Amino acid sequence: MAEITLVEAVNLALARALQDDPNVIVFGEDVGANGGVFRATEGLQARFGHERVMDTPLAETVLAGMAIGMAAQGMRPVVEMQFMGFIYSAIDQIINHAGRLRNRTRGRITVPMVMRAPFGGGIHAPEHHSESTEAMFAHMPGIRVVIPTSPARAYGLMLAAIRDPDPVIFLEPKRIYRMVKQEVIDDGEALPLDVCFQLRDGSDVTLVTWGAMVHETLQAADRLAEQGISAEVIDVATIKPLDMDTILASVAKTGRCVIVHEAARTCSVGAEIAANLAEHGLMNLFAPVMRVSGYDTIMPMFRMEYDYLPSVERILSAVHKTLEAS
Amino acid sequence: MSDDPKHGIHHVASFDIHHSQVLNEHSELVAPLPYFTHEAGALLDLYKWMVRTRTFDAKAVALQRTGKMGTYSPCLGQEAIGVAIGHAMKREDVLLPTYREQGAQLMRSVAMHEIFLYWGGDERGMSYRDQRQDFPIAVPIASQVPHACGVAYAMKLRKEPRVAVVTLGDGATSKGDFYEGLNMAGIWNLPVVFVVTNNHWAISLGRDQQTAAQTLAQKGIAAGVPGEQVDGNDVIACRARIGKAIEKARSGGGPTLIEPLTYRMSDHTTADDATRYRSKEEVEHYKSLDPILRLRRYLEANKMWSEADEAQLKADASAEVDAAVEIYLGTERQAPESMFDHLYETLPRAYHWQREEVKNAGGKDHG
Ligand SMILES: Cc1ncc(C[n+]2csc(CCOP(=O)(O)OP(=O)(O)O)c2C)c(N)n1
Ligand SMILES: [Mg+2]
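Above: inputs. Below: predicted complex with magnesium ion.
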């Protein structure tokens, strides 16, 4: 069994879904002959044909809207937005239709679509190619927002997203597309949506994160272990809806929580988690909940992007603050 | 459908799309030299700017390849269009460019090192010290088209004889922003020129898969905006037609859509590999249509240009580009806390602590 990267796992899951379900179709800009600008759809058009793996004109609004129409017809469209920075003209369709049709029609018309987009910074990309605006989508009723952080989770969560009866925004942390390889068994097994994954067991502090920041957070946990501090690491995975049960249970155990994300701070998913901890877990907390996040600035262009992205040092310093507080 | 009054059918509209060329691919004049060429040195100017642009472009690619700059979108093969725009516009006009209009930007006083800075991941590459009105390039495709209509509206309202020129690609014509802007320009007779560069590719999608329309020029017609094609590798024709459209807009004649036909000779960007989706033969074919070679042969045949002139121009252009590289590479990175300094006119108090945090962290370049 070969070890594969996260982006290869996305590809493997798409191939599996195309293979198993004739209703699955994959389309977007440059997904065909070019295999996607990150090669997530490499080889799929050759294997499954031009009718099920389609290159489209440059038009995000119609891509999103067509996916809704296809999904309403019982298909399982997987539409690629080339970068998160170019998803915005599709938002009208997502917020006004994808998330609402089930409710508007009292369940008569449903939208089992997946919209994939690479997101996040740290790869020296041009302007508009590095933002993390997942919180915008988390704010929209009726949709799911899923973010895989390992090859195995990319495979399992992608299959789950495609099989899910409701719209899923599937955000792929491109900085870790090729960072690690892992054995992934192509068994068609989906992973559960709507639950967090505990990546490390710990007792002193809970580190909650998602996306590429899982990497820095695990590094921080290693460094803390060297200092005799036991950090539990939780990968939120589905940021909408939030699995607060898992986070609350962990914080009940550790009494401290640091939330790490690269998105801007204000109204972030981190803010939502912190609010839930305040509402439901305050009595278990020994220290204020801390957030380590991107700043409330425009994502800087790449010469300064690492001044914006949370670093291991910033995570450690936040953890030490929570430890000092009690 | 032909007229058939007996069955209630009447012809109600029709349109023609013209294609213009002055200098053909063999460097022969196929039309009289346009008026602008009467200005002394006009043709030489166009030629020199194309060579300068290409020299700049090649250096930008080299900087990326050697790890000194980030991803870059070359304009190789498309220089005639940018240079024609730059030559036809007046200083007080406003350009709203995409990322392959280096020629126009340089002619409009954007500094070479500023373009390097931009692709080197530095916002100061958009501050344009000597060009205060033009927009920075728009990366979200077609999103600049509505801005052009707004700019043009302001000019019109104030009765200023100025024009907005917006450039976009064949791919961009599939986006709503483009149609919406075009429609607005048509209704309000705005002083805007849409230059739709058809280089036959939008990353890996060929022109014929982008639209079933016979030409991109005719997309203007539906909005009541005249559209026309021009040979985009013929800088004389480009300069003439774009210039005419600009002057028409300036004098209250309204918008025009111009579709220069050219070819993207390079990969989409330095991060792309075009061999995955297009043939060598196709690229070879377009090589023979090169805009710079075309004008050079004409100038030489008419004793306006010599080997010595060419050598001198190349040397000057290289020196100019090298000097810009030196400025670029010698530019200290911005203080990290500068990410807060242009967010608002004055940074709200709520963000002061964030700025302090970034400042105290003291930035460093990351590998
Ligand atoms: C709204 C949007 N979607 C997707 C992209 C990614 N992208 C960048 S350039 C490009 C193709 C543009 O083609 P065209 O308009 O023909 O311009 P050209 O690159 O040929 O100059 C695409 C899809 C983008 N920048 N913006
Ligand atoms: Mg193009």
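Chain A has a mean pLDDT of 98.
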